[in-house]
Write a structure and sequence with these properties.
The structure is a single chain. Helices cover about 35% and strands about 25% of the residues. With about 325 residues, it is α/β, with parallel strands linked by helices. Strand 12 (about 310-315) and strand 13 form a beta hairpin. It has helices at about 25, 35-40, 55-70, 95-100, 120-130, 155-160, 205-210, 220-245, 260-270, 280-285, 290-300; strands at about 5-15, 20, 45-50, 80-85, 110, 140-145, 165-175, 180-185, 195, 220, 250-255, 310-315, 320-329. It contains eleven helices and 13 strands. Strands 1-7-6-4-5 form a five-stranded mixed sheet, with helices on both faces. It has a four-stranded mixed sheet with strand order 8-13-12-11, with helices on both faces. Strands 2-3 form a two-stranded antiparallel ribbon. The structure holds oxa(dethia)-CoA. The site of oxa(dethia)-CoA has 18 residues, from helix 2, helix 6 and helix 8. Oxa(dethia)-CoA binds next to helix 2, helix 6 and helix 8.
């Protein structure tokens, strides 16, 4: 393997807005209680963006931290991929705004939209671009301001979401370090189970779509729940098979943070003890594409992923989409 270079993560960053909304705060907004949220979902608090904050401002902060850690000036970034379902505006891409905030003048920029799996999809794309030699330095930014599309009258969803951004900067690294494999999947026949129906070409924004609250997240939680754990376990299995790495070799699983019970199911179905599974859902709630990016940064910062450690990222979300990414730090 000596002399082989492949895409790898060389820096990570994260940002969460200052304002915190606890379960006790939520009790004043919808009919719910701390005990239900804690036992059924595992969230204690979430962060809420200030009015002037957007996906691109959150994302730029996380990206700057990732670049600083890697000691790479913004001018050396070749491409910015932003994964988000809550862009600053429907278009142009939030990645372009992030490019502007960073002063990354040489970078191409575009958004991808794979809901909660967006960071994994972004890593897979960045890996392909680097491994085929098209680009050398790529920023993958997962940023969400989900509380702007949260229906604060719907207790089924209002308790779940938060705002955050995570970023990773990728460059060629020497094997055996780097991204060992990725696996992506989707099932469009289930798209209505988790969606924001208003504001697109099917239901363009109108007084009617606003009156019908179509610009908010709609989710059949129970139905989504049934798929999530199994789909993530499947994605884990596939990427491990493809790379010839066994589950015993995985030092840390970083799953999408949607529900503690889903995380436990994915771990159990993947035959991984919870000691080797990363969880921070209690602090941030479900921040869609950002959960895995933020968790990757925190796990590295906490020393849970030292040099040479094998990390498996996995996610599931609207679409449905799912995906996994196996890397050696
Ligand atoms: O990130 C993308 C993927 N998203 C996910 O993976 C989310 C997947 N879904 C879930 O995590 C869970 O389905 C939820 C957390 C959304 C809901 O948990 P659940 O265990 O599926 O609850 P449920 O919807 O079956 O509701 C159980 C009970 C109901 O009461 P009854 O009918 O049994 O009397 C609900 O009305 O809990 C009630 N309930 C609540 N009670 C207090 C629902 N929401 C709340 C609430 N507070 N916020």
């Amino acid at each position: 393997m000596a002399g082989l270079w492949q895409a790898g993560v060389v820096g990570t960053g994260m940002y969460v807005p200052e304002k915190v909304l606890t379960n006790a705060d939520l009790e004043k907004i919808v009919e719910t209680n701390d005990e239900w949220i804690t036992t059924r979902v595992g969230i204690k608090e979430r962060h809420i963006a200030a009015p002037e904050e957007t996906v691109s401002t959150l994302g730029a902060r996380a990206a700057r931290q990732a670049l600083e850690e890697a000691d790479i000036p913004p001018e050396e970034v070749d491409l910015i991929i932003t994964a988000t379902i809550t862009p600053d505006v429907p278009w142009p891409a939030s990645a372009c705004f992030i490019q502007r905030h960073l002063g990354a003048k040489q970078a191409a920029a575009f958004d991808i939209q794979a809901a909660c799996s967006g960071f994994i999809y972004g890593l897979a794309m960045a890996r392909a671009f680097i491994n085929n030699g098209m680009y050398r330095t790529i920023l993958v930014v997962a940023s969400e301001v989900l509380t702007r599309i949260t229906d604060w009258q719907d207790r089924n969803t209002a308790i779940l979401f938060g705002d955050a951004a995570g970023a990773a900067v990728l460059r060629p690294v020497e094997a055996p370090r780097g991204i060992l494999g990725t696996y992506l999947g989707a099932d469009g026949s289930k798209s209505e189970l988790l969606e924001m129906p208003g504001g697109g070409s099917r239901h363009p924004a109108s007084h009617e779509t606003v009156d019908n609250r179509l610009h908010y997240i709609k989710m059949k939680g129970n139905e989504v729940f049934k798929y999530a754990g199994r789909a993530m376990a499947h994605a884990n299995k596939r990427v491990l098979e493809d790379t010839g790495i066994s589950i015993e070799q995985v030092d840390l699983l970083i799953p999408h943070q949607a529900n503690t019970r889903i995380i436990e199911a994915a771990a159990r179905l993947s035959h991984l003890p919870m000691e080797r599974v990363y969880r921070n859902i209690e602090k941030y709630g479900n921040t869609s594409a950002a959960t895995t990016a933020v968790a990757l940064h925190e796990a590295r910062r906490e020393g849970r992923l030292g040099p040479g450690a094998i990390c498996l990222l996995v996610a599931f979300g609207g679409g449905f989409t799912w995906g996994s990414c196996l890397m050696r730090l």
